[in-house]
Amino acid sequence: MGLSIETLAIPEVKIITPARHGDERGFFSESWSRPRWHEAGITLDFVQDNHAYSAQAGTLRGLHFQVPPFAQAKLVRVVRGAILDVAVDLRQGSPTFGQHVSAEISARQGNQILIPEGFAHGLLTLEPDTEVLYKVTQVYSPAHDKGLRWNDPDLAIDWPITRPVLSEKDRQQPWLRDLPRYFELPTSEAP
């Protein structure tokens, strides 16, 4: 049961596609296997699974993240429908700070996106009745739950919609320029 791993323009964010084995009945796929993923170099310890359902196409969730000590890495997959998934680098000192990557993740493709700690995450449903499952490396902590405005002009995310379905919380998230320095890359020591 192999894995296809594609590195995006921000190399810490990856698209992972587990092998599918199909026949006339449908298909079988291991969406997560600790030993197999560890062999591929992905050694995250997931502690919680989440399931999000969006009735309408054009539903935007995000951009969300949790801050230390409850920062989360996420492994996101779609079991029905399709999404445009976006990850924004919030790591101060990173050469890609404030930049983003995006990818279409869908049930049809069977692909997943791995988003490390230090990134804001958002998704836009591209089809009605879309269901998203995602694993996280820390439990949900309301006190550490933060966000970023989905349409921040400094991010220049090319969402294929101008009036998404949003929660009230997501309408009022701060701009990137107003965020505290939540994530710092360690500075390398001089020789």
From TrEMBL:
<dbReference type="InterPro" id="IPR014710">
    <property type="entry name" value="RmlC-like_jellyroll"/>
</dbReference>
<protein>
    <recommendedName>
        <fullName>dTDP-4-dehydrorhamnose 3,5-epimerase</fullName>
        <ecNumber>5.1.3.13</ecNumber>
    </recommendedName>
</protein>
<dbReference type="Pfam" id="PF00908">
    <property type="entry name" value="dTDP_sugar_isom"/>
</dbReference>
<keyword id="KW-0413">Isomerase</keyword>
<dbReference type="InterPro" id="IPR000888">
    <property type="entry name" value="RmlC-like"/>
</dbReference>
<comment type="pathway">
    <text>Carbohydrate biosynthesis; dTDP-L-rhamnose biosynthesis.</text>
</comment>
<dbReference type="InterPro" id="IPR011051">
    <property type="entry name" value="RmlC_Cupin_sf"/>
</dbReference>
<comment type="similarity">
    <text>Belongs to the dTDP-4-dehydrorhamnose 3,5-epimerase family.</text>
</comment>
<dbReference type="GO" id="GO:0008830">
    <property type="term" value="F:dTDP-4-dehydrorhamnose 3,5-epimerase activity"/>
</dbReference>
<comment type="subunit">
    <text>Homodimer.</text>
</comment>
<comment type="function">
    <text>Catalyzes the epimerization of the C3' and C5'positions of dTDP-6-deoxy-D-xylo-4-hexulose, forming dTDP-6-deoxy-L-lyxo-4-hexulose.</text>
</comment>
